Structures are given as C-alpha cells and as structure tokens.
Amino acid sequence: MKKTILGLAMIFIIAGTVNAQKKFASWQDSIAYEASLSEIWTPVPKAVMPGNFISEPPSDAIILYNGKDLSAFHGRNGKKIGWVLEPDGALTDVKGAGDIITNESFGDCQLHLEFRTPSVVKGAGQSRGNSGVFLMEQYEIQILDSYQNPTYVNGQAAAVYKQHIPLVNASRPPGNWQAYDIIFTAPRFNADGTLLSPARVTLLHNGVLVQNNVSLIGPTDWVIKPVYKKHADKLPLFFQDHGDDGNPISLRNIWIRPL
Ligand code: MG
Question: How many CA atoms lie within 13 A of 18 on its CB side?
Fold first, then answer.
C-alpha cells in the first residue's frame, strides 16, 4: 500500500517537474502537451498513388452497412444515431453525431470499409477528416485526410493510432472514396488476466499494404502508455465521431468476416 502511494507521489512529482518548465494557459493545454510527448513526426511515409480497388463483399461476409440501413449499429449510451444517410448511400458524420457501434460483437476478423473525407477541406492536421474504426471498442485504426496534410505520423491515416506508422501513405485526395481492408487478431489472455498474446493488425489501404501483422502494445490511448486489460473474446466495433468541424467524413460498403 505504502509503495503504491509512494509510486503515485513520484509520478506527480515527475509530471510536475516536467510541466514546471512550461507555463500553460489552461489544464487542457497541459494535457495536450502531455499527449504531444507521444507524437512522432519523422520520417514521413512515402506517398504512393493507389490503383483502383474491388470492393464487393464476398458471399460469406456479414454486411454491416450497404448504403441503405443502419440496423447493424446503435448510438452510444442509448443516443440516437446522428449520422446522416445520404441519397447516394453515403453515411455521413455530422458534428456531435456520436459514435456508431455495432450491435454484434467480433473477435478475430477481416473487415472491409470505405470512407471519404470532405472534398471541401476545412481544418488541418488531426482536425481534417478525423474518424477511426475502433476494433473491440478499443484498438483504433486511424481514419484521417492524410493527403498532403502533415501531422504526427503515428496519427496519420492508416496508423494504428499512436502505435504503428503506416509503411507508406496510400491516401487518395479529399472527396474520393478510399478502402481499408483490415485483418485483425484479437489479443488472448491467461485465466489470471495476464496477456498471453497481443492484438495484431494487417492493413491494406486502397489495396496497398501499410501495416504488416503488427503487434499492438495495448488499447488505443491519446496520452498515456497503454496497458492491456483482460476483456471478452468478442466485443463490438465502432466508428468515431471526432466531434469537431473539419470531420464530416462519410462511410459506405462495410462488411466483416469473423475468422
Ligand atoms: Mg481518430
């Protein structure tokens, strides 16, 4: 017990020492500074122009969204789904619409999704077409407009957020549909809650390999170093509503194959 209290005190002292050298206008600025310590900015992945892609679901896929109905999803905390179903079948996030969460739970899977960041560019860096798909509610593959839009590279499109930089930048220009094909292996846990094997991700962005069976160090976190916590074998996935102005991204053609 004493050790724990001493440990916490040490963290506060260390954090205080780090922050003491900087003056912050608000506590939000202070947290943003802490978060910035885990950003990586170089080297910048090479830009690759992708070819065309085939996006029709195979016969054994579970269709999560086919441009017509949202019955596979629900809003967070009983909130109504605020995303807008457009005449062309695009499902578009609007500011404050909330995350959309699948009703069904998934573990190991192959997931296909298509997204489009706004053709009218508003915002920069992380405030430009930001969304994300969170596998098992906690492992984020970043969705972002990363076409000529510098940001920290472990937070650009197709990054495993704050953990793995994409091998190349296969982003299409804003306003174009893009595809992610994700092969996800869920983490395994021992009976005592310790980690047996980490989550792994392979990702093709517009048909280009950008994550090659990478191991995740834990659930996605903006600020602190993530730590695995034992969870169910299957959990829902959700798409992030980033909540600011520059992010009315659209989705279409989402399907999944449990493995
Ligand atoms: Mg995001």
Answer: 12
* Separation of CA 50 and ligand 1 centre (Å): 22
Ligand 1 centre to CA of 134 (Å) is: 9
Asked if residues 103 and 72 have their Cβ atoms less than 8 Å apart, the reply is yes
Nearest-CA neighbor of 36 among 163, 152, 129?
152
- Least confident span in 17-21, 35-39, 181-185: 17-21
Residue ranges covered by each domain of the chain: 1-37, 42-258
pTM score of the predicted model: 0.85
pLDDT at 16 over 90: no
Q: What is the CATH number of domain 42-258?
A: 2.60.120.560
| Residue 153 CA to ligand 1 centre (angstroms) | 13
Cα 28 to middle of ligand 1, angstroms: 19
* Per-residue confidence (pLDDT) for residue 1, from 0 to 100: 38
| CA of 16 relative to ligand 1 center, distance in Å | 29
